[in-house]
């Protein structure tokens, strides 16, 4: 603490990127406008079950009609990078074939506007919203052809934007997309099958590798990477069996992807237990997947906890998301159970020591929080107090600075999210933004945590 009672702000290396992130389906709206085709997420959120979130899905936070307001706020925050995704079906309404020029113009305008303001665009090519027509044609990523259609789509966007955009993220969180969309059925396209899970994971990675080749040949100076969700996994209670369960869960959620990308293999120990689900892998696939990239994108929120359970077929382990077993994993009184900032340091050290210390961008980190919105007499938003989120960001960024001090090659950090947005099946009920959004009026206001982030950026010795 310094004399004013403020925690001192961590310093990051010169050139470090301070950004915020979003995804097309979660912000754009304009779901059926100007030639855009429906995506699997449009279809999924029109199920009667999600009727209460229809506006969130169709209008989101309306950036398709106005991105200027948010750009102004990004400048006010002092961001020097912005991560956003492209809607595949806005660019290729059928997923392949004819391009929709209005879709491409929209993204081209956004890229120009960012560059004019000195904000580096980080584009996620695929953040889960596959064109419905393509999913109907090839079964989505369950079908191997999706990898090729995806690479064709990547080529289209790099042809149009690659002269100005230098940072490309091929895919967002293949684990989530395969797991929630194809194993648990909680996300689009709503499939529930362990066979589908592994096929999707393999085909996503294959699509990634094919896209890396295409992007490189079109834009040799491009920086290309993939974004993985990452979870340090700890044993629920510290017994030998639970430690083994945690190791197995780690293979399943983390190493499956890291080993494929950085070593060109899937972990053998995984197939020893899950052999019936092994997807068809053709010769040459693993070499394509392991094509060298320029960076690893990491989304980190919280760890997982695993315990041995012989009743669970094949897995013999249960993985708890986010509910820690007692006080051992509570690092801060205000934050309470769930967040675990040191996990970020631990992950960074793993990449440093076990995966060749690749350049890493933390492409998502952030939290939902209780907030107090203060309005003036005319009803305009004056202040948004969110001390919980500020504390969260302080502690995670401290750990990140510590990891850099310990030699991890971390190049940038993106808060999830820039503004409150449409959180998939939770609609507007899960605000995580640095910027508050009044969803009835689209009014925006920077939250206290946003001002804290601005001060952190300003405080960097340059
Ligand atoms: C990640 C997703 C992102 C958002 C955050 C909260 O898994 O990539 O779109 O939903 O979680």
Would you mind describing this structure in some detail?
The chain contains 16 helices and 15 strands. The protein is an alpha/beta fold and 462 residues long. The chain has a single domain (17-238, 295-301, 342-459), classed as TIM Barrel. It has an eight-stranded parallel β-barrel, surrounded by six helices. A hairpin with an 8-residue loop joins strand 8 (304-308) and strand 9. Residues 1-6 have low confidence and may be disordered. It binds beta-D-fucopyranose.
Bound molecules: beta-D-fucopyranose
How many domain modules?
1
Instruction: Enumerate the spans where pLDDT stays under 50 for 5 or more consecutive residues.
Output: 1-6
Strand order of the largest sheet: 1-2-3-4-5-7-10-13
The CATH superfamily name is: Glycosidases
Give the strand content: 15-25%
Structural class by sheet pairing and helices: alpha/beta
- Distance N terminus to C terminus? 23 Å
Helical amount:
25-40%
- Assigned CATH architecture: Alpha-Beta Barrel
The major sheet is characterized as:
8 strands, parallel, barrel
CATH class: Alpha Beta
Task: From the alpha carbons, calculate the radius of gyration and give it in angstroms.
Answer: 21 Å
The CATH topology name reads TIM Barrel
How would the global form be characterised? globular
**Tally of separate helices:** 16
Number of strands: 15
Q: Let me know the average pLDDT.
A: 96
